[in-house]
Amino acid sequence: MLLLNFFRDIRHTLPRLISVMIVTALGVMIYIGMSGINANMQYAIDTYLEPAAVSDLWITADDADMRDVRGLRALSSIEYVSPRVTLMTNWIEDDETNLTLHTYDGAFEQCVPYIESGRMPQSPRECMLAASFAKARGLSAGERLELEFEGRILRFTIAALVISPEYIYNVSGMDLIPNPYRNGFVYVPEEAVSTAYGTHVYNEILIKGREGVSREALINACKSVLGERCLAVLNFEDNVRAYMIYSEMQGLVSMTTTLPALFFLTAALIMFTTMQRVVENSRTMIGTLKALGYSDSRILIYFLSYAFLVIVIGTALGAVPGRAITGFLVTIIYQYFELPPIEFLMDWAALINAVSIAAACCVGAVLLTAVREVQTGPAQCMRPKPPRRSRRNIIERSPLWRVLGFSVKTVVRNIFRNRMRAIMCIVGVSLCMALIVTAIGMSDTVDKLMDDLYEKLYRYDLQVSLERMASNREERHIARLAGIERLESEMALPIEAIASGKKSDTTVHVCEDIVTLMVVDQTADVSMTMPDGLFVAKQLADDLGLSRGSALTIRRIGARKTHTLPVMGIAPNINGVYIGRSLWRSLGEGFRPSMLYLLANDPDTMKRTLEDYDFVSAVKLKQEVVSAFDAQMETMNAVVGIMILFGGVLAYVVLYSLGVMNFYDRIRDLATLSVLGFYPKEIKRLILSENMVFTILGIGLGALLGFPLLSNILTGTSMGELTFEPMVLPITYALSAGLTLVYAIIVNLLLGRKTKKIDMLGALKSVE
Amino acid sequence: MIMSDPDGPIIHIQDLTKQYKMGETLISAVDGVSFDIPRGGVCILQGASGAGKSTVLNILGGMDLPTSGNVFVEGEDISRYSKRQLTRYRRERVGFVFQFYNLMPNLTVVENVELARQISPNPMNARDALEMVGLSERLNNFPSQISGGEQQRVAIARALAKNPSLLLCDEPTGALDYQTGKAVLQTLIDVCRKAQNTVIIVTHNSALAPIGDLLLRMRSGKLVETKYNETPVPVSEVEW
Ligand SMILES: Nc1ncnc2c1ncn2[C@@H]1O[C@H](COP(=O)(O)OP(=O)(O)OP(=O)(O)O)[C@@H](O)[C@H]1O
Ligand SMILES: [Mg+2]
Question: Which terminus of chain A has fewer CB atoms gathered within 10 Å of its CB, N or C?
């Protein structure tokens, strides 16, 4: 019988229960979705990167020999020492390519590559090639691969296509994001380069420390053995190519915690208010049951069934799309990284967590409200709850009060009487608003970035990449072409940038002394005079801990000579290091243009003209350069859409469930109004104006929350060199407010239909 | 038949029936009732529980529609009214007093009365209405701060403030104790006599039969007695 009553009872609270279920489902969904991503990335790390033994240190050495290696191997703090020769080569077919060649000695102890196809090389004539490069260039195992290194040709047969744990996110050279078409790596047996480089001399040593040895101790130990021959040490954490997946994961953590927490909190609050109402409305029932002799615990279980219902249905509804979100986003994230195929992991732990959090919220809400009622005596329960004491609120005490109409008064009083509900509604709407501001702000941020790139940084019409054979003569030839208004040239070279013992592989751009077309410092006016020092990309400066005035040592890859120069400026959205040509020449280095920036009066025609030159390898219009980033922003747009949707659902659920609650709470009052002869429209206005007050206050609060939320979410997001400066346009606030308002109006229209259901006679029959 | 005679009965009910369908069976809550109520008197509608009193009153008050029959109020057949016309009818012509007061808990005493005034075409001053029921001291209290009897007086004041041609009271003393009930009832009748309102008081209490000018008695949905009373007894003199 009690069960029957439960199902009859549920019918009355169903809309509210559904709301709680929806919010719970959303919380579960986002939580499972987000932590599923974490779990999957962690799984990738555990199943692939950990067994592959990623190195702790990449030491750049100056002619290290076997004595050094033996010295290092003797150290108790070190588990593996892998000396190797690393050369910057290019594929003979295209000298714009960068294939980093590493040797290995027999077997891999650390940074073990994953063989995607083929087999380990069996002779010094065989190599393992980066699978992504092979794919981009249509190469496969068994084909020949010829590499050029300082004028020599190294010939190999591709034995295997591999994925390497030290090249999970292979950014290098000119590209802001991994570009497998240009960049790759090759592993070859040590003997393969003995003629080109020498035998048993190495320029790089990989170190894997023993468990529990601190990074500092490890570095110091290595330095003490190598002494002068230790040129630079690259920490695992600073090695973007290997560490990116880890830092990406850390970035995700902020999203995985902030967003679901917001939803669970809302679910708990709505559950609390709903249950409070359910229990309050069941006072008579509680009293009757108690009078009939039901035990307290039986009655409590009755109310807990609501919680169980919500938990079961809510989590079930959330878990399935949550898993889908994980699947969707993991696929996207894996596209950024080069990883072996990894099976999709269902994050059971997250599910269990989500269920427990949801359960804690719902059961807690029920217990908080029900225990007190259940414990009061049956007689007291059967009597209606004494009405809440009425006190005058601030607005009432102000002189303004007299002027207000009664409907305004009821609204104001009602808001003040149900502070909890008012707060809930405002918070709910503000979350919606904040989510939408964040979502649209995200695209504002991207647009701003794109604008900066397009308007402030790239002031050229055409970007021309030159073949390696091109020289100043070719540059002059192009400069003299009809239709060219201005030409500036640049040379890009791969370098190592070293500062305070840290090392980063990057690119030096030797540009004109006065740049006007590719303006390194985007805040510069029409032109920018290169300073007597270096201009460094923000990303690189952060990695190496550089600030204005610090000293930075650069070394061309393969060269012995290093240059130490002061950092004169740090700029976002550029790549590597920029230096003026005169300064570069004064260092005793040569200049050969590798890139031209042009202003042309007809860029499209000029593009076609330039493409015909055999010393031109690529011509890109400015739009093409920028739109390359646009593609990357597609996923961002998906996220924006999803967040707007979530915001809407959240606002809907909060406003609707609380609105319905308010409606049923006051149904007697509303019936009375109806009996007194108020038109349905007037009654509707009364209910809705309250919601509108909440909506407007919520929008205000949400506008304040939006920016911090956006910053919080963007902290974890980066795209190579591009720096996201969180920014929200005023129009975005207006748009978000408009959208939130639309959501609120939809909810109110739905609520308004309920006024038709007011049963005058029924509501007047009894006190309950 | 349109009754436009200003001196005729304010209410003319003809063959009023109200049936409720409960699954297969039809329940006749009101079964062919006809009666007239003259203008400006106190009418007592008495009957046992379930007799159909509230049903008649609700139809009279424009809160419910009859299954068949006509209900003329001041010459107009409200049983033909649309929902909107009924609302307007309640708004402009009828005052209600309920067993459970039905005050707005978030409005003070005076605001509750103002509430009715606001939608009324020629309302009475709220303070005057409250003075009539003897509540001019508690104007700014909330309903939860005054007693049940006082709340019912506020409800009466609220109904009076609309200056309705018809005042309908369903068990106005049902939730009050004996003494308080009597006092409230006396106030109600006194005030209406003074203002010349037409009042219909529904009660199951047969002891109240002699206090009105007209007694209508119902049993099982049928009108069983109609009695005009030339000399109504003051409430203070009846005992139950
Ligand atoms: N909504 C309804 N559905 C079904 N039957 C109803 C409904 N409303 C009233 N009835 C029935 O109509 C009959 C008359 O009800 P009504 O409320 O008019 O009685 P009453 O005379 O006012 O009684 P009481 O003094 O107890 O208030 C009752 O038998 C009741 O069961
Ligand atoms: Mg009744």
Answer: N
Q: Which two tokens stand for residue A614?
A: 């055999």
Quick one: closest CA in B to A401, which residue?
B111
Residues A32 and A62 in one domain: no
Q: Quick one: how far is CA A280 from the chain centroid? A: 44
A736 and A747, same structural domain? yes
Residue bearing the CA closest to ligand 1, atom 29? B50
The beta-carbon neighbor of B119 closest among A390, A676, A760 is: A676
In angstroms, rounded to a whole number, what is the distance separating the alpha carbons of residues B108 and B105? 8
- How do residues A582-618 score in pLDDT, each as one tens digit? 999 999 888 889 889 988 888 888 888 888 888 887 7
Crossing angle of helices A622-665 and A419-451, in 10° steps, is 170
Question: From the CB of residue B236, how many other CB atoms can be counted at a distance below 10 Å?
Answer: 11
CA of A56 to the centre of ligand 2 (A): 86
- Check if the interface score ipTM surpasses 0.90: no
Q: Which ligand is nearest to the CA of B48?
A: 1
Longest dimension (CA), chain B: 54
Q: At CA B212, angle to CA B207 and CA B215, rounded to 5?
A: 75
Pocket test for ligand 1, best of B25, B54, B202, B218 (most atoms within 8 A of CB): B54
CB contact under 8 A, B115 and A764: no
- Spatial separation of the C-alpha atoms in residues A635 and A238, rounded to whole Å: 26
Identify whether A378 is part of a domain.
yes
**Ligand number with the minimum distance to the CA of B16:** 1
Are A632 and A585 found together in one domain?
no
Chain B hits for A385, Cβ within 8 Å: none
Q: Whose CA is nearest to atom 4 of ligand 1?
A: B20
Q: Kindly tell me if the per-residue pLDDT of A509 is higher than 60.
A: yes
Residue of A nearest to B159 (CA): A676
Is A103 in the same domain as A149? yes
Do B208 and B46 touch, CB atoms closer than 8 A? yes
Q: What is the rounded distance in angstroms from the CA atom of residue A167 to the CA atom of residue A158?
A: 18
> Rounded to the nearest whole angstrom, what is the distance from the C-alpha of residue B221 to the centroid of ligand 1?
9
A538-595 pLDDT tens trace: 878 888 888 898 999 998 876 778 899 999 999 888 888 999 999 999 998 888 898 8
Least confident of A255-264, A367-376, A553-562, A713-722: A713-722
How far apart are the C-alpha atoms of B228 and B212, rounded to whole Å? 8
pLDDT for res B3: 44
CATH top-level class of B40-66+91-232: alpha beta
Q: Does B88 touch chain A (CB under 8 A)?
A: yes
Q: Quick one: A290 and A141 in the same domain?
A: no
Ligand nearest to the CA of B58: 1
Gyration radius (Cα) of chain B, Å: 17
φ, ψ of residue A109 in degrees (nearest 5): -105, -30
| B81 and A CB contact within 8 Å | no
Nearest to A410 among B64, B106, B116 (CB): B106
* Residue A347 in domain: yes
- How many domains is chain A partitioned into structurally? 4
Averaged in consecutive runs of 10 residues, what is the pLDDT profile of chain B (240 residues)? 60 93 88 91 92 92 91 92 89 86 82 85 87 85 84 88 88 83 86 85 90 93 91 85
Shared-domain flag, residues A318 and A377: yes
Interface test with B, best of A403, A421, A675 (most B CBs within 10 A): A675
Q: Do A644 and A766 fall into the same domain?
A: yes
The answer to the question of residue A220 being in a domain is yes
Q: How much is the average pLDDT of A21-46? A: 82
The sign of the dihedral angle between the CA atoms of B140, B145, B150, B155 is positive
Environment class of residue A195 by beta-carbon count within 10 Å: exposed (0-12), middle (13-18) or buried (19+)?
Answer: exposed
